[in-house]
Amino acid sequence: MSTAIKKQTLRQQMRSARRALSPHQQRQNARLLCRTVTSQLWFQQAKSIALYLPNDGEIDPSLLIQYCWASGKKVYLPKLHPTAKHRLIFVAYTAKSKMRLNCYRIPEPVIQGLKPIPAWALSLVMFPLVAFDQNGGRLGMGGGYYDRTFSFKHLSKGMSSTKLIGLAHDLQKTENLPTESWDIPLQGIATDKHYYPC
Ligand SMILES: Nc1ncnc2c1ncn2[C@@H]1O[C@H](COP(=O)(O)OP(=O)(O)OP(=O)(O)O)[C@@H](O)[C@H]1O
Ligand SMILES: [Mg+2]
């Protein structure tokens, strides 16, 4: 089987599996994820943190967002780049942010006179994924958005201080994930059951 077909098959399987979780299971996993993440030193030390609003059965980090607000950490959300295709920018997010749906029907904060933060200036980015393995391999939705936005990590050879962590339901774990040269490696994956450092 070619890598492209393997990736497509795995994407379909994992997306159906996470969408099949009941609202009760989703809420429980969200609570357990919050516990996994808040117990980590890298989270406790981070001051500017990018998170996301869940879509397509992705694990819900809303409790983490509220935890960050309550503890004085700055929260940012991704927004489609206004000009560059398949790239993201990060915009400050507060309880008062004005939101608008993007072309994928995902809510994004409206830029209200605030400059987006450069991706490299974030201390921690937690983003969704479709499948992961324990080596830091990540399969996303297929747009290459996160891969392109964080491609500077390939060049910085360990000099970048931006930590990239994938968030997922534990059932999205797989072995032998087909990864490609452009895939951005994760420093860890946090789920409802474990933190997997890579
Ligand atoms: N740094 C990059 N520069 C140019 N093209 C890229 C880069 N990263 C990924 N791509 C392109 O994006 C496409 C999708 O990549 P991939 O299948 O890895 O998406 P993904 O990781 O599932 O998506 P996402 O990053 O949005 O979660 C591929 O065709 C790949 O060539
Ligand atoms: Mg990729």
Strand-helix topology:
Elements: H1 3-19, H2 23-38, H3 41-45, E1 48-50, H4 62-70, E2 74-80, E3 88-92, E4 99-101, E5 107-109, E6 124-128, E7 131-132, E8 138-139, H5 145-149, H6 152-156, E9 163-167, E10 188-190, E11 195-197
Parallel strand pairs: 1-2, 1-6, 6-9, 9-10
Antiparallel strand pairs: 2-3, 4-5, 7-8, 10-11
Short description:
Helices cover 29% and strands 21% of the residues.
From the structure provided, what is the oligomeric state, counting identical versus distinct chains?
A: single chain
Mean model confidence by pLDDT: 96
Q: What is the radius of gyration?
A: 16 Å
Separate helix tally: 6
| Helix/strand/pairing category | alpha/beta
Strand order of the largest sheet: 3-2-1-6-9-10-11
List how many beta strands DSSP finds: 11
Count of the separate structural domains: 1
Please indicate the percent range of residues in DSSP E strands (runs of 2 or more): 15-25%
Structure description:
The protein has 198 residues and is of the alpha/beta class. The chain has a single domain, classed as NagB/RpiA/CoA transferase-like (Rossmann fold, 3-Layer(aba) Sandwich), CATH 3.40.50. The protein is 29% helix and 21% strand. The strands form three sheets. It has a seven-stranded mixed β-sheet. Strands 4-5 form a two-stranded antiparallel ribbon. The model has no long low-confidence stretch (mean pLDDT 96). It binds adenosine-5'-triphosphate and magnesium ion. Residues 140, 144, 147, 183 line the site of magnesium ion.
